[in-house]
Design a protein that fits this description.
The complex is a heterodimer of chains A (about 80) and B (about 160). Chain A has about 80 residues and is an alpha+beta fold. Chain A has helices at about 10-15, 30-40, 45-50; strands at about 1-5, 20-25, 55-60, 60, 75-80. A five-stranded mixed β-sheet of chain A has the order 2-1-5-3-4. The chains are: A alpha+beta (about 80), B alpha+beta (about 160). The interface between A and B is medium-sized, with 15 and 27 residues.
Chain lengths: ~80, ~160
């Protein structure tokens, strides 16, 4: 079982990688996922990933609220976007 | 009603895209509108060297599709097209093309403006600008959010 986490743009540069695989039972909440990431890549990331400007997507959809994660999910942490 | 979305590194030919859409429509639409975005050569009096565009394959297309669906729900349209480039772009290069077609001009013109305004705040892209003063990630501006909000606040 695994959840794939992806980081983009300025966040990818800060984290130092674009992908992280969380093996085992999927985290039961977004906060639990951030704690898992912090334990692997640095505790300071827990607050950075919870910053208000950071948007989170689950399987290519922006999430609102706090979803439960399942095996095979892809979660993306995204700094502010701009197209056009 | 057709939606076409293309994310690509390569440049695009506005004239060729226009002609192809016109051919596909075969006279059904009496109005076509387009917007083309180009990399500026200056920001805050600093000379821009290049712009790096990053995207999230799969989600980026989905975010644009959501904008096109909202345009479709609001105006009666015959076709919409968005081409968005990614990778490293230099000043004067084209970044984005929006085309819309409708029976009448108001729907074509308004939906074209709505789509580009919405892409500024909703399309999943990141831009890093390299200028004479260094590098920075660009956020959508408060003016971008004001323009996007204006569409939400207007009566439909």
């Amino acid at each position: 079982m695994a959840v794939t986490v992806r980081f983009f743009a300025a966040l990818r540069e800060r984290v130092g990688r674009d992908t992280l695989t969380i093996e085992g039972v999927p985290p039961p909440s977004l906060h639990a996922l951030r704690l898992c990431i912090g334990a692997r890549l640095g505790a300071d990331l827990v607050a950075a990933l919870a910053a208000p400007e950071i948007r989170v997507a689950l399987n290519h959809e922006f999430i609102h609220g706090d979803p439960a994660f399942s095996d095979g999910d892809e979660v993306a942490f995204m700094p502010p976007i701009t197209g056009g | 009603m057709s939606h076409a979305i293309r994310i690509q590194q390569a440049d695009f030919d506005v004239g060729a895209e226009w002609a192809e859409l016109q051919r596909q429509l075969a006279g059904r639409a009496g109005a076509m509108a387009s917007f083309c975005g180009v990399v500026r050569d200056q920001f805050d009096a600093q000379a821009i060297q290049d712009l790096e565009l990053e995207h999230y394959p799969g989600m980026t297309e989905r975010s644009i599709e959501a904008v096109l669906q909202r345009a479709d729900a609001r105006w009666t349209l015959d076709a919409t097209l968005v081409i968005h480039r990614v990778g490293c772009l230099r000043p004067a290069e084209q970044i984005v093309l929006v085309m819309t077609a409708a029976r009448h001009r108001q729907a074509a013109l308004e939906s074209c403006a709505f789509i580009i305004d919405s892409l500024k705040t909703e399309a999943v892209f990141w831009k890093r600008e390299r200028s004479t003063s260094g590098e920075r990630w660009i956020d959508s501006t408060s003016a971008d959010h004001t323009r996007a909000a204006r569409w939400r606040n207007e009566r439909q």
